[in-house]
UniProtKB/TrEMBL annotation:
Its main location: membrane. The lineage of its organism: Bacteria, Bacillati, Cyanobacteriota, Cyanophyceae, Nostocales. It is a multi-pass membrane protein. Keywords: Membrane, Transmembrane, Transmembrane helix. The chain crosses the membrane at residues 45-65, 72-89, 149-169, 288-304. It comes from the Bacteria. GO terms for cellular component: plasma membrane. This is Energy-coupling factor transporter transmembrane protein EcfT. InterPro entries: ABC/ECF_trnsptr_transmembrane (IPR003339). It is found in: Membrane.
Length: 309
């Protein structure tokens, strides 16, 4: 069991360097926020399009299959489960529905050129008439509202989790903090500690692999002891896992203390005395192209992706 490989959430992929890696972190952050905000008040076609775009970006970026296959697979399974459960769930309206017109209703066409009134067909094809209930077989019932809510919920689960993970996968923690610090510069006028916030974010991102490593080591230590869980019972098993969790917290606090001591030894007391220099950010040709595509992205969102009430 290797959590650092099977569950690479929040980890940076150093090699190979794809075109997503080479984009400016500020541009990628704006793209991420666009994915997360364009979902609001959007129709289902746009929500499904966001999912397809994330998959297309992953494939065309030539990220190794071993990196995203398992996590995307589990995430797609989770989204399909949410879709199935949401579609079969009641819509909550509690209203019985029936056809708008009687089965024998006939519509009269208005007279034209002095001709006599003629009867039109019975609403033409009955197969094309509006049906609120899309599928009903036994206890399974799918209607339009429940399906709409299911698509909305399942797509937002995939978009929220995978877009953030793709950003962390292709952007180094130092690049994330430098990009955020650059975008947050106007907040300095309101005496907001921008450097302290970005430094805290950097340390938290660097701490994620340490947490996964500690969890992995503790799980391996429990597995190597060949504990007979049946003999322990529910109470004994819970006591063992409480001991493991306590040990995990102790190890994480010890790691945090070691990081703090390392910073103090290097003379870091505050950003005013120890200047934090991340990297020199500069927009290149690929970044400007990404910005232009982003403008088209929002144009399509406003023109075709808005939900009609």
């Amino acid at each position: 069991m290797d959590l650092l490989r099977s569950l690479p959430l929040g980890l940076y992929l150093e090699n190979p360097q794809t075109w997503l890696h080479k984009l400016d972190p500020r541009v990628k952050l704006i793209w991420l926020l666009s994915f997360l905000t364009s979902y609001v008040v959007a129709n289902n076609y746009w929500r499904v399009l966001l999912v397809l775009l994330l998959i297309i970006f992953t494939v065309f970026a030539k990220i190794p299959l071993r990196v995203w296959r398992q996590q995307m697979g589990w995430l797609l399974i989770l989204s399909f489960m949410v879709l199935a459960i949401g579609a079969m769930s009641p819509d909550g309206l509690g209203v019985s529905y029936q056809p708008r017109l009687p089965a024998t209703e006939q519509v009269l066409t208005p007279p034209a050129n002095g001709e006599k009134t003629k009867e039109s067909p019975k609403l033409a094809d009955r197969n094309k008439e509006y049906n609120y209930v899309l599928f009903h077989q036994g206890p399974i019932k799918v209607n339009r509202r429940s399906l709409d809510l299911a698509i909305s919920l399942s797509t937002i689960v995939f978009t929220l989790i995978y877009s953030t993970n793709l950003y962390l996968l292709t952007t180094a923690p130092e690049e994330i903090t430098s990009g955020m610090e650059s975008l947050m510069q106007p907040l300095r006028r309101f005496k907001i500690p921008v450097t302290e916030i970005t430094l805290t974010l950097t340390l938290s991102l660097r701490f994620i692999p340490l947490v996964l490593e500690e969890v992995q080591n503790l799980v391996r230590s429990v597995m190597t002891r060949a504990i007979n869980w049946k003999k322990l019972g529910l109470k004994g098993g819970a006591k063992v896992w409480l001991i493991v969790i306590e040990r995990l917290l102790e190890n994480l606090l010890l790691r945090a203390d070691q990081m703090a001591n390392a910073m103090m030894v290097r003379g870091f007391t505050s950003p005013n005395e120890h200047q934090v220099k991340w990297q020199d950010l500069k927009l290149r040709t690929g970044d400007w192209l990404a910005i232009a595509i982003l403008i088209v992205f929002w144009g399509l969102r406003i023109a075709f992706g808005t939900e009609v009430s």
